[in-house]
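Hi P.,

Sorry for the delay on this. The queue was packed all week, but I finally got your sequence through. Input first:
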Amino acid sequence: MYKDTIVARTTAEGQGAVGMVRLSGDQCLRIIAKLINPVKTELVPRRLYLGKIYDLKNNVIDEITYIFCQSPSSFTGEDTVEIFSHGSPVIINMIIDLCLSLGARMALPGEFTKRAFMNGKIDLTQAESVAELVSAQAEEEVKIAAQMLGGSFGRKIKSIREELLLIIGWVEASIDFPEEDDATTFNRDNLLGRIKNIMDTITLMISSYTEGQRIRNGVHITIAGLTNVGKSSLMNVLFDKEKSIVTPIHGTTRDVIEGTLTISGIRVVFRDTAGIRKTDCAIEKEGIKRTKKVLSQTDLLIYLIDAEKKSVQEDLFFINEFKDKKIIYAVNKIDCVNKENIRWINKIPQYPCFISALKHEGIKEIKIQVENFIKKFTSQKSNLGYTVNQRHYNCLKDGLEFLRKACAEIKQNVSEELFLEYMYDAKNRLSEIIGEISPEDILNSIFSNFCIGK
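Then the structure:
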């Protein structure tokens, strides 16, 4: 338990109908007894009370409701009080200032959740999921964060760790009592089988990483093509607003312009890029350089070709640089040319969409292809009830490697002591996932990314 009491606003900044201030620590009841009237001498935990909050000169600030949660049956595991006032930032700040004047301390980013973790209310994977839920920008991000918050992943890691401890205990006993029938010397196949089962489980967990990264980071789609082909016009049509400047002047777009949509529950980042052409303009050259960098990192490329062109030789040269990418081809300005009269269509690697960004024609076909790509791109279902993040992935991968080394030692009939060293390394690396072994710098890094109030 912590000795100090912390306070922070837990609703978003700005005005709203209701604002919430949270206190956590053993001084909660003492503080609100001096601010709220009436305060009963014996508050029933988890019951909502009505009262008025006063400043230190006994002036009414607001009529509020409040709720008390008693340790250890609270989110943080400490006594907590949550005060619900009207949502004026002035009122909320006055309440916080009063709490501070009566001995509370302003909470650090993520400190409520960190206290919940340190007091054993949640494991580290659940703590991370709180931050992911707060920052989620699309439905699928919410789903994977909520699954992790449920604790199934943490429970699975604990189960694996317990199995590793049983194996370690068995091997240590066989060292002390080598003459026993169940000693390691006589049961290597059984030992290897149990470790292989653990390795298979970890491998399955690792397989969920790719899907999780795609959902957490969003799908990145880049619109590219030669200059003045209509990339910015298509960007504006997709967003139904003017995000990019459109003019008949070649090279208008000099920098990468981004916009985000939600498609099929996935966050999708679209990028409008500078047109590709030979130029002596230093600024335009830099724009083209940035375009190529973005294209090397994109998940899907929408490549536009001008329907009025007589040749696509220059386009094909550019397309060849990124032939390893998934590409949707679109022939733009079809309002100016009959598509039956376009002689170079068969030279394009795949049949294109025919669109007019100016007339908003054919856009539905591009949207359908984009949606199909997203569904396929994020369809690697792990069926585990969770998807691991980068930190989990690194720990799991290291743990798996230590288990492989442990198995190699057993197969080579070396001493059990070296085998045990790898087993302990594997157990410790997996324990880091749930926070049972966590260097302070790792914890600080995780919780510093939270918002104040969580």
